[in-house]
Amino acid sequence: MEHIRTTKVEQVKLLDRFSTSNKSLTGTLYLTATHLLFIESSQRETWILHHHIAAVEKLPLTTSGCPLVIQCKNFRIVHFVVPRERDCHDIYNSLLQLSRTAQYDELYAFSYNPKQNSSEQVKGWQLIDLAEEYKRMGVPNANWQLSDANRDYKICETYPKELYVPRTASKPIIVGSSKFRSKGRFPVLSYYHKDKEAAICRCSQPLSGFSARCLEDEHMLQAISKANPSNRFMYVMDTRPKLNAMANRAAGKGYENEDNYSNIRFQFVGIENIHVMRSSLQKLLEVSGTKGLSVNDFLSGLENSGWLRHIKAVLDAAVFLVKAIAVESASVLVHCSDGWDRTSQVCSLGALLLDSYYRTIKGFMVLIEKDWISFGHKFSDRCCQLDGDPKEISPVFTQFLESVWNLTEQFPQGFEYNEAFLLQIHEHVHSCQFGNFLGNCQKEREELKFKEKTYSLWPFLLQEQKKYQNPLYNPDFSPELTLLEPNTVSFNFKFWRNMYHQFDRSMHPRQSVLDLIMNMSEQNKQMEKDIKELEAKIKRKNSQSDAVLVKEPLQSAPPAPMALKTSPCFKKEQPLMPVNDSVRTIEGSNTADNRYSEFMEEFSKAEPAVVSLEYGMARMTC
Amino acid sequence: MEFAELIKTPRVDNVVLHRPFYPAVEGTLCLTGHHLILSSRRQDDAEELWLLHSNIDSIEKRFVGSLGTIIIKCKDLRIIQLDIPGMEECLNIASSIEALSTLDSVTLMYPFFYRPMFEVVEDGWRSFLPEQEFELLSSVTDEWRLSCINKEFSVCPSYPPVVIVPKSIDDEALRKVAMFRHGSRFPVLSYYHKKNGMVMMRSSQPLTGTNGRRCKEDEKLINATLRAGKRGYIIDTRSLNVAQQARAKGGGFEQEAHYPQWRRIHKSIERFNILQESLIKLVEACNDQSHNMDRWLSKLEASNWLTHIKEILTAACLAAQCIDREGASVLVHGTEGTDSTLQVTSLAQIILDPRCRTIRGFESLVVREWLQAGHPFQQRCAQSAYSNSKQKWEAPVFLLFLDCVWQILRQFPCSFEFSEHFLIMLFEHTYASQFGTFLGNNENERSKLKLQQKTMSLWSWVNRPQELSKYKNPLFEANSLVIWPSVAPQSLQLWEGVFLRWNRSSKFLDEAYEEMVTLIEYNKQLKAKVNALRRKLAELETDDRMQENL
């Protein structure tokens, strides 16, 4: 790689991010074409994918060397001290280059080779089939049909080709409506609720300005409301704060005038825009990254960042949507400005609350493919996959995952997947290791032939789905309530420590109940099998010995040579089942880890400090 | 009994009870000397509410026409509402409740009237005796002795009759030391760390005053716990500033010049009304569901509750660190040595000593470090978060301790034999109980009240197997290590089991917990079954071989 000048630096120190007494570990830093690798003297490895690097910063030279701070998109922050400034400078420059990719084909996904043959690759991409998904929802049907209007991405570049619209929406209506909508994103079906015959539809803002109207668009909305036989009234949810929507009118955009559309109820729900969200996360990270943070600084920082307020706003919007459908059987049309950020959040969360399928592992993948990937959430821009406009970066998808996490906390039995699944997806939205999240829309993905050149993430997650299963999941969880009704009282929203401090091990519980229960649940399955085998064996034995009594002379060789060797379940005799002991051992039980010892420098002897950085990044990369 | 005089209307029909997350219940309300009872008359699922008057923190009454409403706020933080038809009845009930929930005399409290309906297997009053504790200690060291100097509570009114002190210090010296310490609370042994023989002692502040009074015996006493050439640490739970100010009132701290082998560390743990206000603010914030996010977070912050948790945990970790990591002995004290001192010494033991993480061990810790050590439970727990009266002595000191234990439990969910429910149960009983355990302010008062003879001990009830099983942690696996909790603000959480308990439905969380318990139980069953089958198979195979050999 032309960007790499120095591939190896020795005697590099990795500082503990939160220690005020500058505790550190020494090791060797390696720079590869795809990763930055730090190997401690104890051989523990820290892998950092170049694409995960959000920012590299070289701090002023100190007596011990040149500090290099790397912030990652998965919220890992590492602080190295490189002995020679020259080396630090080289690494800094290389990382700057390597973390800023100009073209898609330079991304890791194009060099990543998971040793699959091409038919496996194709099969992997076919795992999630959205046509299947719409069939599962119950469309096409008497009221909804597949439209080929966008077959060549002619009407809307950022929509998928297959779109479902009301049967009564003719092509001229679609075309007319799309011309009246920002970026041509006209109202289409996002989710169809079979029982209520109500639909979640999505679009972008109308180009209404102060007074413009569009008959086709009005017809389009009417078609949607007519496609719902149970309730002629439909809701139009503008997910923006009212003020923002009004300001848009001056630019010839805006929101629906209730007088022009028949049978609509218009509602603002007040989710802030991508810029507010970006700076909110920035503030949150500043607070959570502070050394020696006091409780009050943390809480007031959390408040000032507004982050949890935004998460609550997103969930509140989804709850509003769900009530309209579940209680009033009314269809809902959701939009924001362009209909690819807030709209994706609200539509997907709404569907997740309404339909337990999306609370399964496979269903969640489908949901992301449908409401986020296919409907053109701009993953490339929002996650800064290519070196681009920093103003386009925004944690919109992270907020979606966080909202889901909040729901899993309230309904511990309602989801087939666990927190690790959400974290892993977040990891790969930024890793650029798989093709799913690359690019901004389907058209772009097709043109760049991602499906031929890269791999899909989902089969890999399914393969290791044991790791992502919630051991407490109950598929029949409240059967009368396939509908989840979350309580969005403020105190139910918590700081997601496992996301924002994923790599700061010292902050987490030292024993994980989830891991323990997961192991136990696995163990139970294995033992059930073992018991069957054992019982079969004993039965055989018994019938054999009965047989022996009758025709003893006929028996030749004894069945099994020695006891206990034949059955696979006896391989590990003691303990009966291998329990993952590491779960129960106490990691990092070290005072140095826990932030109360700092002022006692004078007796901080060389303790074997336990580092908070480990694997994480490299989990899916090899 | 004179209770009858306080009850003008003992019974009202058609009273409606409202509680959050439950349907309203209509029934008959009865008042007895110690209980408020509401029983529904419906045959299908007869529901009864029994509320101890002593659990009532405050009441409010309202009238709409002739329908009266009484809102009862309890010390366990629950709020219930009773709709009572008839203005007179309502007024009578309200005034009776008010009178009965604020009885002056301890001997009128329910524990003196409670007749247990269970068989006492083990008398809890005799379950945790200092003599037993000393016996355990004697098996590992002979440097300590049991002193009966306080037999008649004559030396220190808030200490138990027997205390553990260094062997080399005689009772005469102790008497002199007692004169030099606030409330006569001379340094006594709190904890012996078997791993390295280091100890933790606790006391009250020394009475140095402004002119730097010293006491040779005091110096000798605490020096007796040091190994040759080793230094010790004095953890003063007050800030340096507060400690200095205490000198003006005759108190003070150990001067370096007189205690050269000790290094003093000041931590600042808040006291009394500051803690009580913190609790009141926290509960207020938790009880208002209408708060938007910003308001909720700022209210939570303004309560300072989690700040107190962090301060207390930090001090406890520091004490534990001195003992385990630095191999030094520690003396902990604040002013009186009955509040923050006990928070620190007891939490340090939970961190250091696996025994304290068992149910039995934790009970023993509560008895030793809180009851016998003279934490004034009766004063501190007289009122809870809804009290209107500004009294001086209430403070959620013990609740803060329980909350800190909960924080550690959350971080080490497999290292404790007991579950969260055990801690909540203790919280409830410190504020209102049918048992005598938490009555009185110290052993002296308890002995005068003859609690052992006249009331039942909480431990007699809790330690019966059928009761105990409710409090067991299904995840428990004994862990002999020292457990260091994280005190980063990101690691501390609001104790929802106490503070949000009545403010949200925990149905889904409870069901998930049940599922977890089922899974663990099932795991045990399967293990047993696999083992049994394996044995059976082995037997069969041995039989085979024997047959072959025939």
Automatic annotation (TrEMBL), chain A:
Domain of life: Eukaryota
Pfam families according to UniProt: Myotub-related, PH-GRAM_MTMR6-like
Coiled-coil positions: 517-551
Start and end residues of each Myotubularin phosphatase domain: 124-500
CDD domains: PH-GRAM_MTMR6, PTP-MTMR6
Keywords: Coiled coil, Lipid metabolism
Family membership noted in the UniProt record: Belongs to the protein-tyrosine phosphatase family. Non-receptor class myotubularin subfamily.
Protein name: Myotubularin-related protein 6 isoform X2
Organism for this UniProt entry: Apteryx mantelli
UniProtKB/TrEMBL annotation, chain B:
InterPro entries assigned: Myotubularin, Myotubularin-like_Pase_dom, PH-GRAM_MTMR6-9, PH-like_dom_sf, Prot-tyrosine_phosphatase-like
Coiled coil: 509-550
Short name of one Pfam family: PH-GRAM_MTMR6-like
Residues of the Myotubularin phosphatase domain: 124-499
Protein keywords: Coiled coil
Entry similarity comment: Belongs to the protein-tyrosine phosphatase family. Non-receptor class myotubularin subfamily.
Designated name of the protein: Myotubularin-related protein 9
Species: Apteryx mantelli
